[in-house]
Amino acid sequence: MPTPERILEREGRTLPTTHPVVANSAMTVRAELLFVSGHGPFVDGRPAHTGKLGVDVTIEGGQEAADTVTMNLLGPLKAELGELSRISRFVKLLVFVNASSDFAQHHLVADGATNLLVKVFGDIGRPARSAVGVASLPLNFAVEIEAVVEVRD
Amino acid sequence: MPTPERILEREGRTLPTTHPVVANSAMTVRAELLFVSGHGPFVDGRPAHTGKLGVDVTIEGGQEAADTVTMNLLGPLKAELGELSRISRFVKLLVFVNASSDFAQHHLVADGATNLLVKVFGDIGRPARSAVGVASLPLNFAVEIEAVVEVRD
Amino acid sequence: MPTPERILEREGRTLPTTHPVVANSAMTVRAELLFVSGHGPFVDGRPAHTGKLGVDVTIEGGQEAADTVTMNLLGPLKAELGELSRISRFVKLLVFVNASSDFAQHHLVADGATNLLVKVFGDIGRPARSAVGVASLPLNFAVEIEAVVEVRD
């Protein structure tokens, strides 16, 4: 059977050899896994950072929301693991940005999450990452993030 | 190298020690995995529960849609596994709610899915969970859900 | 303890024995995993295929965007793995379609991705798949896709 590369060649398709990295996140990551629920930007038990990017939340405000959400992801991980250093890799972040239909800078908002992870965890804090603009979020959160984390035994 | 906790401390950041549980779902879950495609609320092969939360579907209607989708997730799992008791854990649900831009109760809609899972599977039916409001869904479904399930060998 | 099937029976609930396959994608897949970030339809380093389904992008245009994104998923996989034949299975695609609030054909757009994978990889190119309509995407991409891929050791 022909290789995938050969089939693409036959079809006249060329694999992109480079691809633009539009934001601070790694492209592919191997895994063994802890799944973390989507979290919102609660502070002291109350939703902070509500609203919509492209309407009433600035990119900086969105980045702060993403940073706050990331702290809220780390809280239950600390509770579950005892020591955050048991995390061997942040595998995947899916960043949901509460956004208008014409907003186009979701990747910059998501940097608020990965910048904090890289600051705290170094290279292992650089996950595969997606950022998308959703129509709405629970409690009108500006950002919701779910995560997949690899943990040492 | 300093621990992640030490780095956060240096930055003056405090990990949230508790976090509000806004809905019926666990926060973190370990895994070995079966992935299930996003399903919609088909009944007898036809899309039931169409429409948009915040426009023409009530929260109760959305919960019924989520319940119906969950049955449609269990169908292929039964077909694949033979016995549903081979499921050792529902690891993750991602609940897409077809919602207006000002809807804010997605977590209540998602309870329609996890309430059924907990009723049928007990504690192992309590997955990590995210609920978000999307602009639109295939065939105008009110709810679409994808799942990750851990299975016994 | 009663089986899940017995509990459903008691509740008067009947598992769907068949379910409509609305598009080219498998329902359940087992996994060991490589996660790939959400990618957009870049061509030669520039965003191609921008715009919104249901507004200014046709279904065919959306399928071409999904095909282009899929090439952009394969590029980093080739770079990471050396040979694409080390991929033992495409486990999961999550297809985000930049769509209006009344668009309802996201599954057809997503076929642009899975059709290419099946052409190049055969049956192992048929992943569990979800397709949803998001309010907006980075750089106004028409489509963004993230993937989970199983790799041979």
What would the keywords be for this entry?
two-stranded antiparallel ribbon; alpha+beta; four-stranded mixed sheet; homotrimer
Characterise the protein shown here:
Three copies of one chain form a homotrimer. Chain A is α+β, with helices and mostly antiparallel strands. The first copy, chain A, has one domain: 2-Layer Sandwich (60s Ribosomal Protein L30, Chain: A), CATH 3.30.1330.40. Helix content of chain A is 30%, strand content 27%. Chain A contains three helices and seven strands; from the N terminus they run H-E-E-E-E-H-E-H-E-E. The first copy, chain A, has a four-stranded mixed sheet. The longest helix of chain A has 23 residues, at 59-81. The mean pLDDT of chain A is 87. Chains in contact: A-B, A-C, B-C.
Q: What number is the mean pLDDT of chain A?
A: 87
Helix content of chain A: 25-40%
What is the strand arrangement across the widest sheet of chain A?
A: 2-7-5-6
The CATH class of chain A: Alpha Beta
Biggest sheet statistics of chain A: 4 strands, mixed
Write the layout of secondary structure elements.
3 copies of one chain form a homotrimer.
Chain A (H helix, E strand, L loop, with lengths): L3 H7 L17 E3 L3 E6 L2 E2 L2 E2 L11 H23 L5 E12 L7 H16 L6 E7 L8 E9 L2
Parallel strand pairs in A: 5-6
Antiparallel strand pairs in A: 2-7, 3-4, 5-7
Helix pairs in contact in A: 2-3
Structure at a glance:
Chain A has 153 residues and is α+β, with helices and mostly antiparallel strands. Chain A is built from 3 helices and 7 strands; from the N terminus they run H-E-E-E-E-H-E-H-E-E.
